[in-house]
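Design job #97: recover the sequence.
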């Protein structure tokens, strides 16, 4: 089987499992009084990630093997992703759902970064195409992701600020 097909399949299955976990956590958070913010832009992230994986299949020659060092870095990012999900536990979701009285998480990777999950995604979107030599794809999707993240982080920071009575805090 083609190396790029294997990579896209593995990443796609991981993302599907994450979406299922996120949906469960979202339902639980909403049932506990959580409030969703930024619902309108969520579909853009789904399209971005789907397009990123499809772009790999369309642009990378099927017989091209990935760079082992960049692939290793990508695998390390998956460990960071698991750490982030484990740190947030039932509060981890792919949507912005805020429990009004819940304190901000400041453990795990959140000790050092305000948005570690977004940092991981930024690196993933660049690294996987670069591992296969798809520089144009890495650049294009990194720019699109950056534009979407800029908006989303603003929405999330405002939502977290309002939830703690700090109107429009960043």
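Job complete. Output follows.
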């Amino acid at each position: 089987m083609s190396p790029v097909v294997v990579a896209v399949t593995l990443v796609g299955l991981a993302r599907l499992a994450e979406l299922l976990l996120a949906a469960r956590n979202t339902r639980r958070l909403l049932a506990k009084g959580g409030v969703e913010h930024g619902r309108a832009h969520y579909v853009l992230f789904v399209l971005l990630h789907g397009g990123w994986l499809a772009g790999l299949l369309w642009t990378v020659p099927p017989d091209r093997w990935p760079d082992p060092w960049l692939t290793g870095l990508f695998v390390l990012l998956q460990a960071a992703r698991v750490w982030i999900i484990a740190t947030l536990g039932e509060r981890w979701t792919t949507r912005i759902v805020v429990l009004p009285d819940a304190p901000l998480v400041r453990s795990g990777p959140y000790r050092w970064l305000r948005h570690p999950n977004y940092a991981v995604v930024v690196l993933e979107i660049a690294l996987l195409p670069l591992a296969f030599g798809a520089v144009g794809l890495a650049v294009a999707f990194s720019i699109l992701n950056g534009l979407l993240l800029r908006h989303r982080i603003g929405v999330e920071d405002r939502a977290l600020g309002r939830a703690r009575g700090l109107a429009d805090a960043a």
